[in-house]
Amino acid sequence: MENTIFVLAYFIYVIMKVKLTISLLPVMFIWTIAHAVIPQPRVQSLDAGGCFSPNDETRLVVVCNVPEDKLMLEEYVSQSALGITASESAADNAVILAVVDDVEGITSPEGYVLAVSPAGVNILALSPAGLFYGVQTLLQLYDGTSIPCGTITDEPRFAYRGIMLDVSRHFFDKEHIKKQIDILSRYKINRLHLHLTDAAGWRIDIDGYPRLTEFAAWRPEALWKDWSRNGHRYAEKGSEGAYGGYYTRDDIREIVEYAASRYITVIPEIEMPSHSEEVMAAYPDLGCSKGVSVHGDFCIGNESTFDFIEGVLSEVIEMFPSEYIHIGGDEAAKNHWKSCPLCQERMRNEKLQSVDELQSYMMRRVGDFVASSGRRVIGWDEILDGGAADDAVIMCWRGAERGLKAAAEGYDVIMTPGWYCYFDSYQDAPSTQPEAIGGYLPLSKVYSYNPVPADTPEDVASHIVGVQANLWAEYIPTKEHAEHMLYPRALALAEVAWSDPEVMDYGDFRMRALDAVEDLRTSGVSAFDLAHEQGNRPEAEYPISHLAVGKSVTYGEGGKYFAGYSAGGDEALVDGLRGGWNYSDLRWQGFIGGNGMDAVIDLGRRTKISYVGADFMQICGPEVFMPAGVEIAVSNDGRHFKTIAHIDHEIVKDDEVSFKTFSWSGKTRARYIRYRASIGEFGGFVFTDEIVVK
Ligand code: ACM
Fold first, then answer.
1. If we measure between CA atoms, which residue out of 221, 234, 166 comes closest to residue 198?
2. Global pTM?
């Protein structure tokens, strides 16, 4: 009892001190070791200097009336670098964590106030999760000897702070998942979304459907790329060379419990109605063509589909306590439904006008089933296409605008736009990196993402529940590679998700991230070596001046750019701006089909010309190829052109990202310049960034 009174008195002292410190220091100060904490806390203030140095006598006191949480926090802190022993009470020389009813400056259950004085440490929060996050900050401030004195008042910007791991394309065992949980929780990530099912392999044991793990979880090729090229075949479990795997019920229990002990909720994703070739391989009757052709869409006309989905989801719901259950919904081909008698009958009976509405029928029906267990569905943003149920949570990947629009319509939204949140993209110069699926997403770009722009109306902003990054694994066959792609970008995402934009600054973050990367690499995490980052394509770093900048451009028959890759429109090829490592920076203009590219620049008057050239890129995965040929021609009247260069090019498919300039040098005079680039035998896109004229 006496001890309890002491502890309470100590809290009052700490709370008073916190209030005093905050009110006396309206200006934000930075800790002496300023670059330590990721994500950046809201308010941090220096006290009178000094530090607390824990020693063998230091005790840990956790005050929390949920015994499981108390025990979890005691275990976590005593096994941490602090290594202090739990006790029911302590005088000074203590680290005290307490859940209280009210903490000044905190409204979120995940917020905390951390106060460090020479006598000890106090963390106050409204819930055990808040204590856990206070502990993370404390551990980041601890340099192995001492913790600087001061006060931090901190709480998250978003309630949902997620990372998705794709364990279908390449399977990663439970130890890898637990390791990532451990790391991610240190940066206050609180959701782990597991993409458990996709064409490349089913990854969770379902009692009612054993072929999913006897067959659909295995394939002859270890590498996704080989599997994909060789016709998407599957293999019997235990057969020679079978690659794959799945989580048993025990594995899932272990992962879920481990995550809970780090205040992370694991969200399972079961894909439907598409991305399910592996299910059709194991249970062919569930597809429209009943196994006659392999495709990945469930037959929505067939009641067995719903028996299957409900059977699987019942078991999934039993295994995962998460409120959210992800039911996919992305990228359905939908074409089989148009000719499938059962799907057509369903559409007639349910008065559905389109295949989008047919998908919507399925997602709503499955959503109702999930809701009957008291859970709530998340779907990729395609679930909006035929109309989504009001309570569905939209995971927005095809552009932030869609997310803001869905939020304006009243949906709860998790933002994960590909340009900022797809960690399967290159994070540095492609020639220095393991092969990636494409894209260029450096740390700075992840960090620049603001899920709720400042001018967003409050009633829209309140529906953006959070932000997530996704690690799709087609090109990521090993655990080390997965960590290389995750870190440090996950740290940037963590700060985007947690910190107030007012306290965010990339230069400052990068310094902290450099320290964090060093720590991660020292502790056996294969993080990308940020210290040796090369950065964007040098050509993209500065504008170029040349004779055509600002002139007008017209496009010939069939040679106009694809609207999705306009790079800003008709003047993009003469705007003086060249593209970076990937067209995802929207500076590269893309041409697909037809005559390829056919652009005519009007210089305004007859001009002396000595050079015309343009850069092209090749990245075969997303079908971006060099041109098969280039023709450069000039004219004085804009009608009669004289060819000055004709360059044929043999396109060679490879695994590299490459750039090539196709140019002419010489002497001529002309008003008009026509630059044509043709598409080769593999089809796809050609991309160019600027026609440079000298
Ligand atoms: C997705 O990238 N298909 C969600």
1. 166
2. 0.92
